[in-house]
Amino acid sequence: MKTRREILKDAYIRKTHIAVLLGVPRSTANRLYQIADEIDNEQLGAWRVEPQKVRMKTLLRVAGIDYKFLERQIYEEH
Fold it and tell me: What is the separation, in whole angstroms, between the first and last Cα of the chain?
């Protein structure tokens, strides 16, 4: 399993990694994934690169979390 630091570096993210990255239950991670998936399908359509993953940018926008804030939080853990 990837660490939060490794996951944060990815441009695209899976459902299971959302739970680890944000520290939320799987049910919440699934809901965030569904919303981000709908947005990616709408915005990218046929040009979507990873059909089983969502963009990190979209996920963070849906979760209402700033990338720099999350990055600082993860790096201050250790």
Answer: 18
Q: What's the pLDDT score for residue 77? A: 83
Say how far apart CA 19 and CA 23 lie, in whole Å.
Answer: 5
Percent of the chain predicted with pLDDT > 70: 99
How confident is the model at residue 26, as a pLDDT?
97
Domain ranges of the chain: 4-76
Please, are residues 60 and 66 in contact by the beta-carbon 8 Å criterion?
Answer: yes
Helix locations, the chain, DSSP H: 4-8, 15-22, 26-44, 56-63, 67-76
Identity at 24, one-letter amino acid code: V
